[in-house]
Every structure is written in C-alpha cells, then in structure tokens.
Amino acid sequence: MAFFISLLKDWKWPCIAVGLSVFMLAAAHAFETFGNLAPCPLCLRQREVYWALIAMTLTGLALWKIVPKRRFLVALNVMIGLVFGVGVVVAFYHSGVEWGIFPPPTGCSGEGPIDPMAFRDFNEPMHVPSCTDAPFYIMGLSMAGWNGVISAFMAIISFVAAGATFRGAASDQPG
C-alpha cells in the first residue's frame, strides 16, 4: 500500500494521468483505425476531455518546475480530478443517449459512417455516425460506459493523490 501511495505523491500522479490520457486517446484511435469504428460527435466530445487534461497537466507541471510549491501540486491533482469528473458526465450523457434516456444532440443523426480518405464533392453534406447506436457491449456497458467507469476511477485516484500530496507536505516538516 505504501508503494501505491508513493506513486500518488508529488509530481508522479500528474505524469501518470497524462500517460493514461494518452493511452485512452490511442485506444480510441485504434478502434477507429483498425476496428473501422467511425466516431460520432459525442465520442469526439469524450476525447476532448482527455486532450484538455493533457494540455492542462503539462502546463501545470511546467509552471510547477518554475515555482515548485507543494500546494500547487495539490491544486493540480484536484483539477485533474475535476477534469476526469467532466469526463464522467460526458460519458454518462453519451451512455444515456445510447440507452434512449436522453435525447441525442443535434448532429447525431446517424446518416452513416464518414470516410475521410474518400474523394468526394465538398458541396455534398457529410454523413455522421449515430450517437444512439453502440457498436458493442462488454458486460452490459458500451465504450462510452466503460469510458465513464475509467474516468470515475481516475477522478477518485486524483483526489486521493491530492490528499497524499497534501499529507506529504505535513510529514516533510521538521519537528
């Protein structure tokens, strides 16, 4: 358990969070490229959360290197947790659209897949995959559902990391 907590203290969790975000984006791209699963607009919205987290965290780590204050790392870990929380909300909404709980947003018409490599007349409208149709389910959850579970887990770990970094500041004090 001490090893796990040591991975969450200081600058380590923000670096792990960036790595996990890059992995999630790579996995989504692999499903798109190798699995031939074109993303719907809500799928792309879920990816934006990871891109935002990467940009925010790398900027935060760069600023922390300039002014290395522990409380800044605590705040960064809390912000990472909040961004992952936004990922949970977006994934929950997408899952709700797939299950018919929420109405799909405008632009999720489901007019068919988009082939970005196909030569076409640019005056012709593009076809967008449907946000209501999940390509597959694993243990009752779609890809959006699993993204929500992963985001929730990473949000919780981020808040635990903030606490571990904060408590690390107290234990580093002499006396």
From TrEMBL:
GO terms for molecular function: protein-disulfide reductase activity. Keywords: Membrane, Transmembrane, Transmembrane helix. The keyword Transcription regulation does not apply. It comes from the Bacteria. It is found in: Membrane. The chain crosses the membrane at residues 49-67, 74-94, 144-166. One of its GO terms (cellular component) is membrane. It is a multi-pass membrane protein. GO terms for biological process: protein folding. This is Disulfide bond formation protein B.
